[in-house]
Amino acid sequence: MPDDDIYFTINGKYEGLFKDKGSKFMACVFPFEDETKLKDLIEETKSLYPKARHYCYAYQIGVSGDHYRANDDGEPSGSAGKPILNVILSKKLTNVLIVVARYFGGTLLGVPGLINAYKSASLIALEDADIITRYVREVYLFRFTFEKMNEIMRVVKENELKVLSQTYDDLCGLEVEIRQSMVSKVLARIEDIREIEAGYLRTI
Questions:
Q1: Is the distance from CB of 50 to CB of 157 less than 8 angstroms?
Q2: Rg from Cα positions in the chain
């Protein structure tokens, strides 16, 4: 089975603490798939650590490797967001956001010290994280006459497809998730049945 549709992520929220010369770095790790939720999760971190001076973060979304962002939130350029992002990349994770709240302890750490602190806090937060395997899926809509229902459902059962919705009008409609590496195989089986429309909807 091809494995280029496999990715790794986390299934919950995790925290980690790193201390250096009086400064405290509190890392919060979140499952993250929707950029519109970024502000809410940063605010959630601020509510947990309201007296922190900086709230630096990084995230990666999707499996293409080109959908990411890093933010230093006032720390020296490249000293906070990038080290956090590098932890996400080194762990081969995606759909993950890490926000690190820093309490300043009165002693300047310098750029190397900051890089180490933000990296260490992020790694500590991920130490106990439950890393889970997920698959890229494509959603298709099958449309067919009721007489074809049994044949369609046989394909669904044989390939363990997840049915998202069903409709019964003049034509029946079945919306299903297909693991990306299985799409060609499933569509070939559907074509064998004939008189069925198979339309791609989205990738998730």
A1: no
A2: 23
* Beta strand segments in 3-145, E: 6-10, 14-20, 23-31, 54-60, 68-71, 96-103, 131-135, 137-144
pLDDT digit string (tens) for 155-203?
A: 999 999 999 999 988 899 999 999 999 999 999 999 999 889 999 999 8
Whole-prediction pTM: 0.81
Q: Phi-psi category of 74—alpha, beta or left, where left has phi over 0 and alpha has psi -120 to 50?
A: left
Q: Which of 152, 145, 150, 190 is nearest to 169 (CA)?
A: 145
Parallel, antiparallel, or unpaired for β 54-60 and 137-144?
unpaired
Positive or negative: CA dihedral 181, 183, 189, 192: negative
- The counts of H helices and E strands in the chain are 5, 11
H or E segment and range at residue 140: strand 137-144
Structure tokens belonging to residue 172 = 């029946």
Nearest CA-CA partner of 95 in 156, 44, 12, 31: 31
Q: Per the structure block, which two tokens stand in for 200?
A: 């791609």
Domains of the chain and any CATH numbers: 6-133 (3.30.230.30), 137-203 (3.30.70.120)
d(C-alpha 151, C-alpha 140), whole Å? 17
